[in-house]
Amino acid sequence: MPKQALIEKYANLAVNIGANVQKDQPVVIRATTETKDLVRAITKSAYQAGAKEVIVQWGDDYVSRLGLEHRSAENLENIPEWQVQQTQHFIDIGACFISITSPIPGLNKGIDPSKMQRASVARMKKLSFFQTHMMGNKAQWTIVGAPNPVWAKKVFPSKKEDAAVEELWAAIFKACRITEHNDPVADWEKHNDILSKHNKILNDYQFDRLHFKNALGTDITIGLVKNHVWAGGNEHTTKGTEFNPNIPTEETFTMPHKMRVDGKVVATKPLNYQGNLIEEFWLEFKDGKVVDYDAKCEKDTLKNLLEFDEGSSYLGEIALISHDSPISNAGILFFNTLYDENASCHMALGRAYPMNVEGGTNMKEADLKKLGYNHSMAHSDFMFGSADLQVKGITEDGKEVIIFKDGNFVI
Hints:
- The longest helix has 22 residues, at 184-205.
- The protein has helices at 4-18, 36-48, 61-70, 73-76, 81-92, 113-126, 128-135, 149-155, 161-175, 184-205, 299-306, 326-329, 337-340, 365-371, and strands spanning 27-32, 54-59, 96-101, 141-145, 209-213, 219-224, 235-236, 242-243, 252-254, 256-266, 271-273, 276-286, 289-297, 315-320, 346-350, 379-383, 390-394, 400-405, 408-409.
- The model has no long low-confidence stretch (mean pLDDT 96).
- The protein is globular.
- The protein has 14 helices and 19 strands.
- By secondary structure, it is an alpha+beta fold.
């Protein structure tokens, strides 16, 4: 384990910048047993910030795998009513949410993909109201990460297990702007200001569409919804409370028009989905929908994602990140979307964020769809940025503006 002082700084960052816990607000921490030390530190920090109550929802990925292996698909589709009522209770009491990711890459290899799919769809359907609540910024939420030995060895295979875990902690702290001598909360406030400036420049242009191209084969045009909003860094709940959904984050992102995506995109990093790593894959879009695809590894898992529901084969997010950025420059493949997506431009298959269109968080779903909003129970980011990526913005009157040259922002 790293020094306790660094763990405490990380916990304080999650509580005060990530979720921005308010006095007398309940806090729900969602974590696996791999992350107990960080859970304890975050719990302490949350109470110090004035939390009314801290509720920890524990999970264990190995136990979950055993359930997938031994339970029938029909049994897995049975979501207990008490879980639905508990989730609704958290919403009713005005809780904020802190999630800790600690993936175990490849854990579900060999599990029947159709069984995992049926279980995932059943859970998402039963708890869709919670996804609507969170993606509509009705409450503060944040995601942070913590190492486990399997993940650490995947990232640093040449190191012994203990050394790999320490190395991954160090990489996470660096990505999150945490050192022994700094005030990470103050540094994050400055970082949010920089991201806000990028957002303003892009929002002022109000591009009709973006064109992406690189030597790997990406050549794709993405139309944007009218009155789209570029966001990134700190966000606001519908009641005005600031929070940072992802720690770390380097992105500025907005809403693509569901039906206006055409061309091919080639992924530059693996995608961890349903406990499996989809590697070396590409997607071809026509009129917004994926019409062809392939992957070197886990093509069936990619198929599951694309067929999760009607909206999962359309885009819900497009995000821009310079190749010359802290996480990218670290040269580490984290095999975890929270980190890898912040090293690379990325897109998300599935649900869009209502906040990415003007007035969207107060709109009904039907009105959002008229604007080009994509609704889905899925939302899966995949990375396609590269050192030679070129990005053009095209305005409604046909004016072209170079946004990225050689992988980096130039506006």
